Amino acid sequence: MKRTAKVKAPSYFGHLEAARLLVTRGADKEQQSNSGMRPLHAATDQNQPHMVEYFLSLKVAIDEIDNSGQTALLQSSYRGDYRTVELLLNNGAQADIGNNQGFQPIHMAAQQGHLNILKTLIKKGQSNMLSATKTGVNALFLAAKNGHLTIIDYLISKGFDVNVRTTDGCTPLYAASFYGHVKSIEKLLNSGADVKLSNDDQAGPLHVAAQEGHREAVEVLVRKGRADIYAMTASK
User: Fold this and answer.
1) In order of start, what are the domains of the chain with their CATH numbers?
2) Does the pLDDT at position 93 exceed 60?
3) How far apart are CA 176 and CA 189, in angstroms?
4) Which pTM does this prediction carry?
5) β partners of residue 138
6) Where are the beta strands (DSSP E) in the chain?
7) d(Cα 134, Cα 127) in Å, to the nearest integer?
8) Are the beta carbons of 4 and 31 closer than 8 angstroms?
9) Is 187 within 8 Å of 213 (Cβ atoms)?
10) Are 66 and 41 contacting, i.e. CB atoms less than 8 angstroms apart?
């Protein structure tokens, strides 16, 4: 039986010459691992732009997904490799393909705080900044959750609705309050975030800030947001 040489390992570790040799000896440049990862995925997963450039020159399928629904562009947006993101977009990668949970590249960039990548996805990839995951999580929510103030500033400057809610009613202010990101809370409040909006359990930003022990966040919500200290959740 003829065996096909595997090119995933050198792609993963950035061994360009080894990958070239394997391809010339008949290695399948689209071969998938048990997790559905292809050599292009392996290269983007480990921030290997020279390897990505090589496989793109071979005209590999650029938008293929692995078993979790991840494309090469989604991986590089998460990893923060700006050069690879540009390479993929310049070669026609689609910016609106989400993984199995609906997370798109723009969500990964916002979650990880990669502002330049987020801007590039919007401008060059024509990514919809208002897109949401299957649970209604959007870029602003993820930036607020992780305290990425520069991402929050940028999205708000582009007209993002600061009071947009997830499927269970949580707002970006709720996310920032839960994790105690005071600067993010202040920015959202100054931009019109409604401190009175609560989730489906009637829990609002003040409730979760108090629950998680974020005293400074509580003080800001009460002082600047005028949050109601007597507001009750659905279970009281």
Assistant:
1) 1-103 (1.25.40.20), 132-236 (1.25.40.20)
2) yes
3) 11
4) 0.87
5) 132
6) none
7) 17
8) yes
9) no
10) yes
